[in-house]
Amino acid sequence: MQSRKLFGLFLACLFCVAQLSAQPRKPNVLFISTDDLNNDLGTYGHPLVKSPNIDRLAKRGVKFDRAYNQFPLCSPSRTSMMTGLRPDATQVYDLQKHFRETVPNVVTMAQLFQKNGYFAARVGKIYHYGNPGQIGTNGLDDEPSWNVRINPRGVDKDEEAVLTNLTPKRGLGASLSFYASPAPDEQHTDGKVALETIKLLEQNKDKPFFIAAGFYRPHCPYIAPKKYFDLYSLDKIKAAQDVPGERERLLPAAVQTPDWHFGVDELGQRKSIQAYYASITFMDTQVGKLLDALDRLGLTENTIVVFWSDHGYLLGQHGQWMKQSLFEASARTPMIFAGPKIAKGKVSGRTVEALDFYPTFADLCGLSGAPANLAGKSLRPLLKNPNAKWDKPAITQQRRGNAQNGFFMGYSVRNERYRYTEWDEGRKGVELYDYQVDPKELTNFANDPKYAKIVGQMKKLLASGRGN
Ligand SMILES: [Ca+2]
Predict the structure, then answer these.
(1) Can you give the pTM of this predicted structure?
(2) What is the CATH number that goes with domain 25-392?
């Protein structure tokens, strides 16, 4: 009798083990982040830029055409993305303040992965890192977020001494500066980011992982191996054409600097664009190495791969360069998802935000214990059906002013057709752009009576979106 009972117990155990092993393993996440990359990619229709690896990721996933960051500056954007909170909740508006000072007990996205049994690691820049100043350090990292963190440092740091700087009065991290390096990919910081990430994939392939690969290019200084510069003939690269009267017409608050093109001449602008594109293709090659490694390790099928940039980048439009503005090219970012249960080769035109990553991963990976106050929304319905109904707009904000004279904020709301922006709650002006008739945002329709109804609608949309 006793032995029969034991046998029964044994069978029950066997059944349990079989059940457990039959449970589908939680999907892994490889989160690929880049710094200061706009949408100048082949897959987004750019006529010159070569990005074959990001393009092939898009071909097997969902590409968002209207994805926006919350604050087009490294630390505010990245902090918002990793905490799932709007910048007004984290109060991180600059490159100095750490969110643990303001929301000390927040559970970051990476922490939630850990709490759910995932291995969470980063290589390179995920939270803010002075680029290039803090390469090789932890930067403004958040230690509790990671099981492992790796800070590669490449030959590009040494090459800063020999680069060409067209704006020597600006800090190197905000300069138009470049260098076509003789050193191979593997010796550059981003080459090392790829190699170190691949090592982590190899070492941790048998457990659920959230591995974040944080590339530094195409952020300036635009240092990349020479072979990538050779892909872009200078005579094919055009500088942005200044539009007569635009300088006088733009709201002073709307421009990041009144120093048009930083005073750099047209040839210098074209050389900067060439170097920016070279940096994109160099970074893209490193992305390809990660995708190849997933294939080689048999991980592609069960790994959600995301490609993202912390914000966009202006290359001379509106006389402006880089970020910190609420124009489309600064607020917009590439965003691509590929992996299990995600539609293949689809494009979504819905307005989505970087802070949607957190609830999306929590949803796709079945993570429990996600904070109740996440401001984003799971993109799962759009990853299944990219044209699904969706009514959430995207909100981007930017601070202006300084400590001496006071700061003020600009808030911008984007739906599928319009962008509406209020500077200092409208005291320093409002803007309305209609991308259907004016894709280069050259006409501010905010005071056009024909658009009065739209302004009213967008104003409401902004007020409701800012609050969550
Ligand atoms: Ca950045």
Answers:
(1) 0.94
(2) 3.40.720.10
